[in-house]
Write a structure and sequence with these properties.
Pfam family, one: TetR_N
Protein name: TetR/AcrR family transcriptional regulator
Number of strands: 0
Domain HTH tetR-type: 12-72
Helix content: over 70%
Order of helices and strands: HHHHHHHHHHH
Radius of gyration: 19 Å
CATH superfamily of the largest domain: Tetracycline Repressor, domain 2
GO molecular function, one term: DNA-binding transcription factor activity
CATH class of the largest domain: Mainly Alpha
Oligomer: single chain
Organism: Bailinhaonella thermotolerans
Amino acid sequence: MGTQATERADAARNRRAVLDATERLLAEGGGEHVSLDRVAALAGVGKGTVFRRFGNRAGLLRALLEERSRALREGIESGPPPLGPGAPARERLHAFLDGLGAIAEGNAVLLSAHEQACAEDKYDDPSYRFWHRHLRALFAEERPDLDAGFLAHAVLAVFDGELIRRVTPPGDPRRFTRSVQRMAAAMLGQDDHRDPPPGT
């Protein structure tokens, strides 16, 4: 039992070191700077350890993005409204886009790298599938006459790292999120001009 606990602790420590190294390399040189060799060297683990745990560069970036968005996912599934269950679909949509927009605005470099690495199987990516399923359900609840699946894809298509950096001026860090919220509201038939929640 003690040996198994030690192995689990070592695995968790190695995983943390690998993700921290990936994050550091992203900050230093963008997605092109991330490779299994560089991550392993910076994390102080063998390349085989990185490969067995994450598979490839796309797996590294996918794991880091999933970690950054875990709190939002948990809030959607079991948190209080309006993000969690119990609020009207339109309010949940507004809250969800506020949360996803904040993640995207704070991680534009990671988002760009993830998009490039996972381009061939973008629509099968676990995070994308979860966001799409949630958006589709909200659109379908609010406007069953519309093609909810297509609208969900259309909204997620604008979550592009390069676009976010281009449209976000230094003095207005939430411009992207507000614009996406209004776009989604317009899709539902009503432009939403509400101000973002305080502190966002």
